[in-house]
Amino acid sequence: MNGEAGVAQALDAGEKLGPGLLVLVVGPSGAGKDTLLAYARARLAERTDLRFARRRITRPADATENHIAVDERDFAQGVALGSFPLYWRANGLSYALGAEVAEDILAGCTVVANGSRAAVSEARRRFARVKTVHVTAPVEMLAARIAARGRESAQDVLARLKREPALDAPPDLTVLNVGTVETAGAALADFLGGLG
C-alpha cells in the first residue's frame, strides 16, 4: 500500500483492512486511557509487531495527550481524500487515525489506539479484526480527572459525563482504573502482550 492514496483505494474498494488487529481502547473521558496506554507502550516497547497510534485531533497539542494537532480545514480535507482509515467526532472535536495505522494493519501488526465507543461499529466495518478494551472509573473520579486537565468548565465536564454511548458488543477486556497506574496499566499491558 502506498500511504494515504492506498488507504483510500482499499476502503473505496469495500475491502476490510487486514490481516492485522486493531485494538481500540475506549471509555469515558477521565478514565485514564492515555495514562494506561503510555504505561503499556513503555512496558511493551520491545514488541516490534505492536504499534501504538497517534491520533489526529482538532485541538492544540498539550501535555495531557501525545496527539497530532490538525485544524478543521486539514481534517476535512483528509476525510474528503479518504486519508483516514477511521475518524469520528466527539466532545466538539474531530478525531482520526492516520494512514500509518492502515499500513501497519496491512503489514499484519497489532495497532492499539485510543478510540471512541461511538466509532467501534464503524471500525468493525473498516477493519477485518477489531478488539475493544473498555477503561472506566466511578463518576466522581472521572469528574475530578477531567477538571484537573483545566481545559473545560464545570458545566462542560458535566455535559461530557452525560454522554455515554454504548458499545456495540461486550468489550474484550474491561479495566476499572481506580488504583495505581501500575495495577491498571499491567492489566492492559498483559492483555496486549498476549495478542498476536
TrEMBL record:
Keyword ATP-binding: yes
Residues binding ATP: 27-34
Catalytic activity from the UniProt record: alpha-D-ribose 1,5-bisphosphate + ATP = 5-phospho-alpha-D-ribose 1-diphosphate + ADP
UniProt keyword Cell inner membrane present: no
Enzyme class per UniProt: transferase
Pathway where this protein functions: Metabolic intermediate biosynthesis; 5-phospho-alpha-D-ribose 1-diphosphate biosynthesis; 5-phospho-alpha-D-ribose 1-diphosphate from D-ribose 5-phosphate (route II): step 3/3
Entry EC number(s): 2.7.4.23
Record domain Guanylate kinase/L-type calcium channel beta subunit: where: 19-196
InterPro entries in UniProt: GK/Ca_channel_bsu, P-loop_NTPase, PhnN
GO molecular function: ribose 1,5-bisphosphate phosphokinase activity
SMART domains documented for this protein: GuKc
Keywords in alphabetical order: ATP-binding, Nucleotide-binding, Transferase
HAMAP family: PhnN
Similarity comment: family membership: Belongs to the ribose 1,5-bisphosphokinase family.
Function: Catalyzes the phosphorylation of ribose 1,5-bisphosphate to 5-phospho-D-ribosyl alpha-1-diphosphate (PRPP).
Protein name: Ribose 1,5-bisphosphate phosphokinase PhnN
Species this protein is from: Ancylobacter polymorphus
